[in-house]
Amino acid sequence: MKKFVAFIAIVALLYSCGKGDRGELVGAKGKSWHPEKPFGMTLVSGGAFIMGKSDDDLAAVQDAPTKTVTVRSFYMDETEVTNSEYRQFVEWVRDSVVRTRLAILADELGETPGNDGIGEFAFADADPDNMTPYEQYMYDNYYGLGETGYEGRKLNKDIDIIWDTSEYPDEYYSEVMDTMYIPLEEAYNGQRTIDVDKLEFRYTYLDIEEAARKKNGKRKDFIKTEKVKIYPDTTVWIKDFAYSYNEPMHNDYFWHDAYGDYPVVGVSWMQAKAFCEWRTLYKNAYQKERNRQFVNRFRLPGEAEWEFAARGGLEGADFPWGGPYAKNDRGCFLANFKPLRGDYGADQALYTVEAESFEPNDYNLFNMAGNVSEWVASSYDPNSYEYMSTINPNVNDVQNRRKVIRGGSWKDVAYFLQVSSRDYEYQDSARSYIGFRTVQDFMGLDEKVNLKKAPK
To answer: What separation, in Å, do the N-terminal and C-terminal C-alpha atoms of the chain show?
Structure first.
């Protein structure tokens, strides 16, 4: 027995020496992590500020009394999300839907990679000889259990989608692609376009707030699934303005490259939220390929975060540039809005302007006033300032479909451009004057220390 105990002690000693920690408490070591400034974003250093009306409440809404609050540091998009950026999302969803439909039909036909035709687009696990042990285990035990029976199966993205009808490889491929376009009887002028109703993004998330407040329940009870049709509503240019000619904006604004750097509009709060989830998924897929630490999620800013960022460090100012006027000392307008009682073109813009227009505020954020109003994560309650927390405040009631929009737009008067002005729209509504920008939490408490550790 003594020999056995001595043997165990020697093994433990050798194990400790092998770890190189000399038996000390040094902490578990994970992957090396360095903060990374997301592309197109700027760091907004957290702090306290006076949130609420900086001027007289001329509209007598009384929904923004002053209150000192504190927000943590976060990254924010320097501009509103543009048409070209949102088109990247749309095209990713489009390609994923096409690949999924091709893979499902190939699976039903028993086609596998290596066969000419639709088999080239079969699921990556369609060839059992090329599976890893883990993929084989997942295939045997979990695949086929979801809503469609194809959840979890990996798409083959190594082969390009064929869009030229003259190069379709077989009739099965043609059949799938035919389902992606509008019916032939709905086409005109020889143009048969993608049926945008087929562009649906599906994602899941853990409702951590609900889970934290429930005394019991399993984790799966708080995992929510959302399905969102993500193509912008281009008809908003017609519907928002009765007895007005805006067909060119309806026809060209979203898809034409001439408007690529303009802010996307016609997106609902639900679509903006779906975009954030996709951006997180897209970035973390890149991180996974390179065996890097995952980034935390992109999201819509809370109302307090948005106002803190819009103020640009100016305490008590009316506008992102200070105020109280919407012109500079040379008589030039400082934002895109509705000046001079309706002379829309007086600020050099009739509708929207490029997202990187006018001078940014002191946080290098463009158009925090004017151009397009912006969705935030918060629900609108005129009394929310009275009961919200003073640290990272955000009131988002899932039962309240009224979501806050901030910043004013190209069709608003100067009052709505004030950093403290609040407005709302319903979460499933889309407008020609509402866009959004995203934020990402800064990982850590002292950004100066963390940023020094970042690789050059």
So the answer is: 57
For the stretch 103-159, pLDDT in tens is: 999 999 998 887 789 999 998 877 767 777 777 777 777 776 677 778 778 888 889
Q: What's the CA gap between 416 and 409, in Å, rounded? A: 8
Residue that is written with structure tokens 């997106």 in the block: 267
Return the pLDDT at 13.
47
Contacts of 91 (CB under 8 A, 6+ apart): none
Nearest Cα to Cα of residue 173 among 240, 104, 231:
104
For residues 268 and 347, the model is more confident at 268
Query: Which segments of 291-362 does DSSP mark as H helices, in order?
Result: 303-311
Going by DSSP bridges, is the β-strand pair 74-77/41-44 parallel, antiparallel, or unpaired? antiparallel
In this structure, how many other beta carbons lie within 10 angstroms of the beta carbon of residue 50?
15
Q: What sign for the dihedral angle of Cα 257, 259, 265, 270?
A: positive
Q: Which CATH class is domain 44-82+230-456?
A: alpha beta
Q: What is the DSSP string of 390-406?
A: SBS-----TT--EEEEE
Full-model pTM? 0.91
Query: Is the dihedral angle over the CA atoms 111, 116, 121, 123 positive or is it negative?
Result: positive
Domain ranges of the chain: 44-82+230-456, 90-198
Measured distance CA(318)–CA(52) in Å, rounded: 10
CA separation for the pair 128, 107 (Å, rounded) = 13
Average pLDDT of the residues of the chain? 89
Do residues 236 and 430 make contact, with C-beta atoms less than 8 angstroms apart? yes
For 248-267, what is the mean pLDDT? 97
Cα 86 to Cα 438: distance, rounded to the nearest angstrom = 12
- Report helix, strand or coil for 76: strand
Rg over CA atoms, the chain: 27
CA dist 359 and 290 (Å) reads 37
Task: With H, G, I as helix, E, B as strand and everything else as coil, classify residue 447.
Answer: helix
